[in-house]
């Protein structure tokens, strides 16, 4: 039993030495400056992510509201032009376009 008590005492002494070494290192100016830099970087990253998320939301909703209907309408127009081209090729002669200037003499 005596040897167990001596082991615990020696462990507690080394533990105290580790704690005091750790506290001295953590109180150094280099560690404090490092912690400050990491905290500042984390703050900047958080703000950047927040503003980037807002910008992405604005771009995505604007595209859905403005861009998507435009793309759909352009696709419809292209399909209509293709259909007219197919019809004119089947008939053999292109359909005459009405003149907007009126009859020419």
TrEMBL record:
Report how it sits in the membrane.
Single-pass membrane protein
According to its UniProt entry, the protein's GO biological process terms are:
intracellular protein transport
Q: Pfam families from the xrefs?
A: Tom22
The regions listed as transmembrane in this protein's record are 55-72
Subcellular locations according to the entry: Mitochondrion outer membrane
What GO CC terms are in its UniProt record?
mitochondrial outer membrane
Q: Which UniProt keywords apply?
A: Membrane, Mitochondrion, Mitochondrion outer membrane, Protein transport, Receptor, Translocation, Transmembrane, Transmembrane helix, Transport
- Does the record bear Mitochondrion in its keywords? yes
Membrane found in the keyword field: yes
Similarity section: Belongs to the Tom22 family.
* Protein name, UniProt field: Mitochondrial import receptor subunit TOM9-2-like
Q: What organism is the protein native to?
A: Olea europaea subsp. europaea
